[in-house]
Amino acid sequence: MPTNLSTRFAFDLDQPASVLLQFEAANIPEQKLLDVSCKISPGDTLTRVPAQDMIGERIWLHADSRVEVQYEVSVDVNRVVHPLDDLAQMPPHKLPGEAVKFLLASRFCHPTQFLSFTENQFGGTQGGQRIAAIRDWIEENFSYTPGASGPETTATDTFHALAGVCRDYAHMLVTLARASTIPARYVACFAPGVTPQDFHALAEVFLADPEMPDGGTWQMVDPTGMADLSRAVKIGVGRDAADVSFVTSFAPMQFEYVHVDLEVA
Prior knowledge:
Largest sheet: 4 strands, antiparallel
Number of strands: 14
Structural class: alpha+beta
Oligomer: single chain
Strand content: 35-45%
Shape: globular
Radius of gyration: 18 Å
Helix content: 10-25%
Strand order of the largest sheet: 3-6-1-14
Order of helices and strands: EEEEEEHHHEHEHEEEEEE
Distance between the termini: 6 Å
Mean pLDDT: 96
């Protein structure tokens, strides 16, 4: 059953500027793209470049006025979702090189500030059981509150406020996972079950693959509890939200609107 989605958004630029866009479903083995339509107006100066970890693409756009984007795609998602409790933790010295950076601090996630907390709160658990405990703790203790955070809100800010939106929930889980020596990355996606429907954020953690000796697997985790992980459509990944914003402008801009529709056929 394909996941059908469309998004439209627009913004105004006050002066000539370069803008980095990342809003399209990634063409990767776990999801096959069907019937793709993408219109960017004006589209005179567009350049595609690989996104973080070669998952998805970014689009460089140079414009000097109003920009409107219309995107539609049907996606056949074929993702293996393992029960977290069944997944062991990989020793750090056995991690592949590409996973190591996701143990480290990033712009919005500072795991060393939470070393004592994670041990006191989640001690006695490890691996997937630790991640499930973190996910449940966030979902039970945080209030999903639009407007409670802004573009510069860190996971530490969210921890003290106990409120935020999907971006903040994902940053919190990423931070606590890294504090538990489990690689974790931020995921931008579209997902069934999200209310109201919008660009969504969740996390992925790197744990031992039960089907591959000495191998690892990235597994999605949504601490908001809203997303259907088996049908979520991945846009891109990063150390935190700064790496996968759907619009990054390098000059002042005024955002007009964003609209997302999603249905599972």
